[in-house]
Amino acid sequence: MDGFDHMGEVVLGISGASGAIYGVRLAQALNELGIGIRLVVSDSGRITLKHECDTTPEALAEEVGAILEAQANIGAKSASGSAPIDAVVICPCSGTTLGKLAAGIGDNLITRSAIVAMKEQRKLIIVPREAPYATVHLENMAKLSGWGTVVIPASPGFYNHPTSIDDLVDFVVARILDQIGLEHTIGKRWTGEELDE
Ligand SMILES: Cc1cc2nc3c(=O)[nH]c(=O)nc-3n(C[C@H](O)[C@H](O)[C@H](O)COP(=O)(O)O)c2cc1C
User: Fold this and answer.
1) CA 118 to centroid of ligand 1, rounded, Å
2) Which of 81, 117, 179, 187 gives a 20 to 30 Å CA spacing to 107?
3) Strand arrangement of the beta sheet that strand 67-69 belongs to
């Protein structure tokens, strides 16, 4: 089930921060929910996808039925201001892509799609990952947050007692789906009764 009142489409940008698995799992979850995906992977994202998940953008797109658009194709539909795009999610989001967004730079399809989301007041969600964060990262996140971007750190919670990497990844993916506005059953929701058990 999706929360859109029309056939939804989500742009998923995978940039070159560690944590490619979050992007892979998000793509799978969106596909399971019947949401159309436009997938864009940066050159560095291609490297982390291979190194961390042993997959390629092409294989991932085929697995989840996504339309794969080239990062260099600045004129692709993902960057269209008039196309019915419901949300743009950059997961994971590198410090480089974060910095470009904070400076208003849309020099590739991921950054341009995000800038278009800002100007069209579409939902824009970024999932930064770095450790530790430099002040410039923190200032850029604050700037984007102030402009309406949802910043979801790649920081799973542990209050539901995760027992696997999948549980940890799902925690973050569930928060992303919540913010897109999609109904889902991934992960356990806090009920308020847990501390009494
Ligand atoms: C294996 C690997 C892991 C990386 N991990 C991170 C990371 O966690 N966070 C980050 O901001 N950059 C990370 N980088 C560096 C980015 O890939 C690099 O800054 C690049 O310019 C990002 O470009 P993009 O935003 O266009 O993908 C990593 C690079 C490699 C090769």
Assistant:
1) 23
2) 179
3) 67-69, 36-41, 9-14, 87-93, 123-128, 150-151
Check if the beta carbon of residue 134 is closer than 8 Å to that of residue 99. no
Secondary structure of 129-160 in HEC code, one letter for each residue: CCCCCCHHHHHHHHHHHHCCCEECCCCCCCCC
Q: What global pTM score does this model have?
A: 0.96
Domain of residue 93, residue span:
11-184
- Cβ 111 under 6 angstroms from ligand 1: no
Distance, in Å, from the CA atom of 95 to the CA atom of 129, rounded to the nearest integer, reads 8
Instruction: Quote the number of domains for the chain.
Output: 1
CATH number of 70's domain: 3.40.50.1950
- Residue 4 pLDDT greater than 60, yes or no: no
pLDDT in tens, 139-193: 999 999 999 999 999 999 999 999 999 999 999 999 999 999 999 999 989 889 9
Q: Give me ligand 1 centre to Cα 188, in Å.
A: 31
